[in-house]
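note to self: dont lose this again. the chain is below, predicted strucutre after it. 235 aa total, dont forget to put it in the shared folder this time
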Amino acid sequence: MSMQRANTEDSRIIEFFGLPGSGKTTIAREVVKEFTSARMNVVDFNVYLTKGQPRVFDFLKGLLFLRRCHFRLFIIFLSFMNSQLPLNIIFFKKFLAFVRNYVVLVKLYEESSDCIVIDQGIIQAVVSIANNRRITDTDILSNLLAELANCFPSYLLIHVEIDDLTCQDRLLGRVGGTSTLDYASRDELHEVMSTHRENFCLVQLENASIKSITIDSKDSVSHNARIICSANSED
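---
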């Protein structure tokens, strides 16, 4: 495990990022269980978003909490998308989905949740939007990370590391996955994963503001969950 940077308070948002099949969701669920057993008010953000009840009220309420930094982050994210994607209907759908989920996150952050756990968040969205191409505009990426830290001072990023062969085996054996990599050949996976790795490394290099650790998926889920819970409370 490698440790980078440090905040001065407990992290109220924990976001996982890493290759599809690295175990982000499994570890995130274990972290939620750990926090729940410690009687913390924890929200599994991705489960929260997929609940059957409508989220229109959450979105509208979240708008009340938006500050200038949030709008700056929207603009930076839009600029990043513009540098990576063609301007079409898919572009706008992706941006609107990002804004919708982000505003709900702001609402939860500003209200009563002790901790919000995200297994598919902003960093994962950035690498996904890169669309299997290397991120070339590092200035935009650096600005995005800095603004994210400005908007959410108590943030913890978790990079889940996995070796290529294990990741490929997991993806090739996975049924009903939501990633395009779930339907790729081993040769295609190797090429795409190489690009994804470079982009995740770039995120870590450009991150100068947000507390961040790397865990290894070869370690047990419970072990990694304990590391994260410990890192969450370290000054």
